[in-house]
Write a structure and sequence with these properties.
The protein is mainly alpha-helical. About 75% of the residues lie in helices and about 0% in strands. The chain is built from 19 helices and two strands. The protein is globular. The N terminus is likely disordered. Bound molecules: tryptophan. The site of tryptophan has 17 residues, from helix 1, helix 2, helix 11 and helix 15.
Length: about 450
């Protein structure tokens, strides 16, 4: 028996909440609305829903099955299930991917913390009164662009907040699976839903709500092309935490009687619900205040456009605090899941204590994520393949490592893993029924690898 046997989530609810905590993050709240905006709104939403169920859920089940059957970290699972092959390389790749994602994800989580802090102190809106004298918000654009510059593109403030996030991660993760990860998610996830619903209630009563919703929910199929499909797939993998062993690691903490199919559907639906509710928050707000389309691009959306929206509302600071608290909670539960991949690997493989593994995993990030953060200020001229360090890591991990990892996981489970592994895991060793095993196996074997390859090939054809 491995040392993992005492590492387990305490209850079915706890494991679902923790897994949802990993999935729901910046991907749903920040990336989704921006992608939807860029790819035709409702048409993108439809594709995204289709990708989540047709590709996301089967790949998630592949990771769950491997994790629970191998009961080990991302490397150990492959090593245990197929000791002769070199399949453990897939695990190593996952660890590399998760660490790379960790570098820049910590930075963005740091920004959300910084914005939360400055919403609480009021600094974010300091000076706004003069700008908006007489109800004239025309200069708000510039005002918040400058704030964003001050918070993100100066060296120290973002680094300090990133470090704080890393320290919180160390504190949570040394607590272990139940007292750390599970407890954090149990507190933050319910809060997140409450805040999200409160924000929805606000934005759905704005004068431009129906125009915003119409744009978000009425599909324009002419917007769908090969690229939108590929973007929807990329969004699916990122937002469901697929392809780098996070879910393998979490599933190794699932009790033997956990129903994997049920769990995967709940996680996928929760993640979708958050993304859609976020659309309900953003598009009515943006439609009401007539903010321009370009203001929805990437980071500007949440760090410039939304403060602008809040500034137009009564109760500015309260909304701002709620929103950035929401973002921070979602991001934090994802960061711990990203780091857990490496921590589980170090503690299993090298028999390190949890505390040692945490410190060893997270202290290098103090330096690495600082470098990442500096790509918005002092290091903005340093380019790798024409991209800043931050953009390079983001693109490399999201567009290359995650798809390669997902394909490898599918190919391994579909063709090379011990016979019947998927069936055994989906039926909990024959004790429950699983009507869809055949379909899921078919997707894992044939459809997923081919479709995901498109993400890798598409940029080469441009
Ligand atoms: N799913 C998270 C989000 O939406 C991010 C994340 C956590 C992730 N673990 C991951 C992304 C593993 C890819 C792979 O923000």
């Amino acid at each position: 028996m491995s040392s993992n046997d005492n590492k387990q989530f305490s209850s079915r609810l706890g494991l679902v909440v923790a897994t949802v905590g990993s999935a729901v993050g910046l991907g749903n709240i920040w990336r989704f609305p921006a992608e939807a905006q860029a790819n035709g709104g409702a048409a993108f939403l439809l594709l995204y829903v289709a990708c989540v169920f047709l590709l996301g859920v089967p790949v998630m089940l592949a990771e769950f099955s491997l994790g629970r059957a191998g009961r080990s970290d991302a490397f150990g699972v492959f090593h245990k299930l197929s000791p002769r092959g070199k399949w453990w390389l897939i695990g190593e790749l996952g660890i590399l991917a998760s660490y790379t994602i960790g570098c820049f994800y910590m930075v963005v989580t740091g920004w959300t913390f910084e914005y939360l802090f400055n919403s609480v102190t009021g600094d974010l809106y300091d000076g706004m009164v003069q700008v908006a004298a007489g109800g004239d918000f025309t200069n708000a654009d510039i005002f918040f662009a400058e704030k964003m510059h001050q918070y993100i593109s100066t060296p120290w403030p973002p680094i300090i907040f990133t470090w704080l996030v890393i320290l919180i991660n160390i504190a949570v993760l040394t607590g272990g699976v139940q007292k750390g990860i599970e407890r954090l998610s149990n507190i933050l996830m319910p809060l997140l839903f409450v805040v999200l619903i409160v924000l929805c209630c606000l934005t759905l009563t704005l004068p431009g709500a129906s125009a915003g919703l119409e744009w978000f929910l009425k599909p324009d199929f002419s917007k769908i092309n090969a690229m939108t499909v590929i973007n929807a797939m990329g969004q699916t993998f990122f937002s469901l935490s697929l392809g780098m062993g996070t879910l393998i690691t979490y599933a190794s903490y699932y009790p033997a009687n956990t129903r994997l199919t049920f769990t995967s559907v709940i996680v996928a639906m929760m993640s979708l619900v958050v993304a859609v509710l976020m659309g309900f928050v953003i598009f009515p707000a943006v439609a009401t205040y007539g903010l321009t389309d370009h203001s929805l691009v990437g980071a500007t959306l949440v760090f410039q456009t939304l403060p602008e929206v809040f500034a137009c509302l009564p109760g500015t600071r309260l909304w701002s605090i709620l929103f950035f608290a929401l973002l921070f909670m979602a991001a934090l539960t994802s960061t711990v899941s990203i780091m857990e991949v490496t921590i589980a690997f170090l503690s299993d493989r090298f028999k390190l204590s949890r505390a040692k593994a945490c410190v060893l995993t997270l202290t290098p990030l103090l330096l690495l994520s600082s470098i990442c953060s500096l790509s918005f200020s002092s290091l903005s001229d340093v380019k790798l393949f024409g991209m800043t360090i931050f953009d390079f890591l983001d693109n490399f991990a999201t567009n290359i490592l995650l798809p390669v990892g997902s394909i490898a996981i599918c190919v391994y489970l579909g063709w090379f893993a011990p016979k019947g592994l998927l069936h055994k895991e989906l039926t909990n060793n024959g004790t429950v029924r699983s009507l869809l095993t055949g379909v899921i196996l078919f997707i894992i074997r044939y459809i997923a690898p081919v479709m995901i390859s498109a993400i890798l090939i598409a940029p080469l054809l441009k």
